[in-house]
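Practice set, problem 2.
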Amino acid sequence: MFNKNNGATIGIFGGSGFYSFLEDVKEYEIKTPYGKTSDKIAIGKVNGKSVAFMPRHGKNHSITPENVNYRANIWAMKEIGCKHIISPCAAGSLQSYIKPGDIVFCDQFVDWTFGKRKDTFYEGPIVKHVSAAETYCPKLRELAINSAEKLGLPYHKTGTVVVINGTRFTTKAESKFFTSQGWEVINMTQYPESYLAKEMDMCPLNISLITDYDAGLVSDSDPVSHSAVIEVFKNNIENLKKLLVQIISDFEDYSCACHTTSKNAGA
């Protein structure tokens, strides 16, 4: 049974391959008012610091992006004490200068899931309108940028991620439109995960690991395929693990405007 004394300040969502960087791991099943989480939360140590981890698609990657219970996952992280949420994800590039293997620390999102996902904790009788103007935490993003710089990783300080519902990839027409808007990254999970973290007064950070060029329009490449995404992701996962370890090692808890977001949202 979970004891709040065994909680963590930093929570990470990602694939099951990330378990390997945690030490002294214990798993907890957290019950939520929003149903089942994607999986148990694993709490372990990284350089002596407590970190919580949950595979957003389940350990066996059995949950599709549109069926992830984002509210339950975020609520569970809050329940165990997390104030900072790191969301690494595989993503496609919409611009030629952002290459597979690059990392983008997105600072904006565009929701293209068309209301198909439960995306607020304030459905009534309490109603709040939490600003999404700057969802991703600038302080946490700055720390991540400095960590990438230390490691010599190829990165981009900012970017806009357009979030599609999935499970299908885009058509060429859709990809062309997204590129024409100047957006840099495309993904299936960043909304509402990041926004829900903000509603719960947590600091969200996105780390987009670029695996492909989406429909292939901005490069001389084939349209994205699942097998290609997995191959590139596997080839670059060690860099992502190193980055997460560096971020956590350099992390010092701080007060942030993110932590009082809901108080300023009205009722």
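Problem 2, part (b): a different protein.
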Amino acid sequence: MKFYNVLIKYRLWIGIVLAALGGYVNYTASFWPAFPLYFIGLILVAGHFFFGPLRLIQEYMESGDMDGAEKVLASIKFPNLLYKPIRSVYYTLKGNIAMMKQDFEGAEKNMKKGLDLGMPMKEAEGASMLQMGMLSMQKNDMKQAESYIRAAIRKGLPDKENEAAAYLQMCSIMMNKREFRAAKDFFRKAKALRPTTPQIVDQIKQIEKYITRIPG
């Protein structure tokens, strides 16, 4: 795995060196002895631009090193050359990092690009729509937030934590609209999932203090 990560990190330069070496062999001998060097070099260079180094981000994301993840994203100079599903992931990751830095405008812009390109998995699309809904709530655009979060629930979410977060956001939106019966229904769904994320657990406790006292 480590070797593969090193190869991904340096494959552009390895590819250029192999292509140059192929040129030297071609000049001193003939084309066919140089062909394997040309071929492997071309694959490595094409892979750098077509697939990018996004695999390297996983390690940084898992360890919570957002600066490291951001550096990997910044190393992609020509994102439009990326294979379409990978380009979608690229913009989604940029949006996630912007959101963590509370750059809500940048987050929305990049996540929209990712969604427009189409996500490789429905659950990933659902998670992006949930985040777009949360961004809309930050902007106090409840109508747009509801649209995104309902779409996220329909598409499916990757785990019960995201699903519970979606139901809680819908609960808040319904309470804001004074649709108390719907609010209680979404709250029950969130609670039934038994999420363990501290922030979501705390939110459930806070809502539970007063939701039983409201009509509906």
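Answer key, part (b): The radius of gyration is 23 Å. Residues 150-216 form one domain.
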